[in-house]
Write a structure and sequence with these properties.
The complex is a heterodimer of chains A (360) and B (252). Chain A has 360 residues and is mainly α. Chain A is 66% helix and 2% strand. Chain A starts with 24 loop residues before the first helix and ends in a 6-residue tail after the last helix. The N terminus and C terminus of chain A are likely disordered. Chain B has two domains: 167 residues, P-loop containing nucleotide triphosphate hydrolases (Rossmann fold); 69 residues, no CATH class. In chain B, 34% of the residues lie in helices and 27% in strands. Chain B has nine helices and twelve strands. Classes of the chains: A mainly alpha (360), B alpha/beta (252). The interface between A and B is large, with 33 and 51 residues.
Chain lengths: 360, 252
């Protein structure tokens, strides 16, 4: 009687393992862009496909990617976090202030800072990041500010604290054992993985499980898909948003601490404009700015595309001055291609279907 | 009526928005197993009354009882827990999630993973959703489809299935056929009838006279915040109802 659609199909087909559960159709397009870029640069210069260069590329997009994992959740919830660059700088300064020779409150009589302070300083950096994120979340939920405004304010406030606190001077003379965090390589076979890259991958896996396999992650999608429906279903939209922005701040802080460890100095101008790199990585990675859709794997690929582009253009002799234009072209091109793939997939025809076999 | 005790009873409920009287001492009852249509022009107070029942609004005066329990000041979540499910006009579904995800929205089923992590149990949620859809005789080609790929009638069916899965004891439907094509309207009305067969009372808000006359056991007409008519189906026809809706009956 109430047969709402035509061909009935056994609704509860046995659960099989589908690659598509991990690599969804939407990542196919940008993955091909990445492969195409790597091929292009490999053929253009023999300096590209060397293990030193690959190590360098991976290192250089690690902090962007870590911050971008948090940004992915924010954007899936139909929000935005513009403060992430400033939060990275603030977390870096906070950590560095606790570790700087002579100037740290923990400095001994000879000015050196004991190694035991390092974990504390790292935690302090993470906490500062998380706190900034929590404040963002409170401004968005309690004060009901649009995320764009709240985090734009935080961008300025955090940057101001960075300048005021450091008086405009870079904080340097950090302990060697702290800088190991950013400089150590982990050899796997003949290949050296930079420690920040390993940390990035671990954070990425955790973020991926969190987002796709837990109720909390699911609620991020629900809030981004239809906030009203989520609220009426008894989901605490406020708590979900507080969590999302706190995670974004925390991961921004983690990126900032790693950046500081890598550079060996916390400059007040550090990570300026990084929020746009981070947002670009997320958006190139296929996460929809209108919310409800996106993935950690996509963001990782997006961050890798931006990293490969930066180094690749450099190696084939393009002046660094032109780099922003190339990045702009890649952002627009990747998203155009991505939308094209999605439209094809919507009709469940063509190339993307190869990757979504049986998963529909 | 076999059972004279109302399952839902609103007594002298009033609600004001600033100087506007949205509800003026409204009395309203629903008895077990009946389909009650709530009719009225735009701004007559139908949606306001429904939102008072579902906990979205708190009335300034009067009381609302559900199974003899005073629910006047309950939150929407606790009213849902008591078994009053509301299907809003925009359906309140997340279109970017699949059918199982929507049925379990806000009450996700989790399982242990390696004993240390609580992960979502997609397979369980999908198979439970499949069962409740089957109970309602609704067929949706694939439960893995995101809702955005389903038709309006299928989405309405998912919303009803969700309400039923959580043991709705009273279902409120706000304009369930408004956005649908004619064949899908028929199917939704068939669903309403099958709810009555399951002995679940339904309050249905509609502008479509034909729908109402087809499924409702009783018609309640509101006008300017008041209940102006309360008619069993046997005493109602389109002409009488329209008169009450536009206010012509009061003058006559």
């Amino acid at each position: 009687m109430s047969d709402i659609t035509a061909p009935p199909r056994p609704a509860n087909a046995p659960a099989r393992f589908h690659w598509r559960r991990i690599i969804r159709g939407q990542e196919v397009g940008i993955f091909l862009v990445l492969v195409g870029m790597i091929l292009f640069f490999s053929l253009s210069t023999d300096r590209f496909l060397t293990s030193i260069n690959l190590t360098n590329i991976m290192l250089n997009f690690s902090w962007t990617a870590i911050a971008a994992f948090g940004m992915t959740m924010v954007i899936i919830s139909a929000g935005i976090d513009l403060s992430v660059g400033s939060v990275m700088a603030l977390a870096g300064i906070a950590t560095a202030m606790l570790l700087a020779r002579d100037n740290s409150p923990f400095a001994g009589p000879d000015g050196s800072v004991p190694d035991a302070v390092i974990p504390l300083a790292v935690l302090a950096g993470l906490a500062v990041g998380a706190l900034c994120g929590l404040v963002n979340g409170l401004l968005i939920t309690l004060a009901r500010l649009p995320p764009f405004i709240a985090t734009l304010g935080m961008l300025q406030i955090a940057r101001g604290i960075v300048y005021g606190w450091s008086q405009g001077w870079p904080v340097q003379n950090l302990p060697g054992n702290f800088m190991v965090l950013g400089r150590q390589n982990i050899p796997v076979g003949s290949f050296n993985f930079p420690l920040p890259t390993v940390i990035m991958l671990v954070v990425g896996i955790i973020a991926w499980i969190f987002l796709t396999r837990t109720a909390w992650g699911y609620r991020i999608f629900a809030v981004g898909g239809n906030e009203q429906a989520a609220r009426l279903s008894g989901i605490s939209v406020m708590r979900t948003k507080l969590m999302i922005y706190t995670i974004s701040g925390l991961l921004g802080g983690a990126g900032g601490v790693l950046l500081t460890a890598r550079l060996g100095v916390a400059a007040p101008t550090a990570a300026q404009g990084y929020e746009l790199d981070v947002i670009a990585a997320v958006v190139v990675g296929g996460t929809s700015l209108s919310g409800g859709e996106g993935s950690i794997l996509g963001t990782l690929i997006g961050a890798a595309i931006m990293g490969v582009l930066r180094t690749g253009l450099n190696l084939i002799g393009v002046e660094a001055y032109w780099l922003p234009s190339a990045q702009g072209i890649i952002i627009i091109g990747a998203i155009t291609l991505d939308q094209w793939f999605r439209r094809r997939q919507g009709k469940s025809a063509g190339f993307a279907r190869l990757f979504s076999r049986g998963g529909r | 009526m076999t059972n004279p005790t109302p399952i839902l009873q609103a007594k002298q409920v009033s609600k004001f928005f600033g100087g506007l009287t949205a509800l003026d001492k409204v009395d309203f009852e629903v008895y077990p197993g009946e389909v009650v249509a709530l009719l009225g022009d735009n701004g007559a107070g139908k949606s306001t009354l429904i939102k008072c029942v579902s906990g979205v609004y708190r009335p300034e005066h009067g009381e609302i009882f559900f199974n003899d329990q005073n629910i006047t000041h309950h939150s929407p979540a606790s009213i849902r827990d008591l078994g009053i499910e509301t299907i809003y006009q925009d359906l309140a579904l997340a279109e970017n999630l699949d059918v199982g995800g929507n049925v379990f929205l806000g009450k996700e089923k989790k399982r242990n993973f390696l004993g240390l992590l609580r992960v979502l149990d997609d397979d369980f949620m999908r198979s439970e959703a499949a069962q409740v859809l089957e109970r309602l005789d609704i067929h949706i080609p694939s439960l893995k489809q995101k809702l955005v790929n389903l038709s309006g009638g299928q989405r309405q069916a998912v919303a009803i299935a969700r309400a039923l899965y959580w043991n709705a004891k009273l279902l409120i439907m706000d304009e369930p056929t408004a956005a649908l094509g004619v064949p899908e309207q028929r199917k939704v009305l068939a669903l309403v009838r099958s709810l009555r067969e399951h002995n679940i009372p339904v309050i249905i808000i509609s502008h479509t006279m034909q729908d109402v006359l087809e499924v409702a056991d009783r018609m309640v007409v509101m006008r300017r915040g008041r209940v102006v008519a309360n008619l069993p189906r046997s005493q109602a026809d389109a002409e009488i109802l329209v008169k009450h809706i536009v206010g012509a009956a009061e003058v006559a």
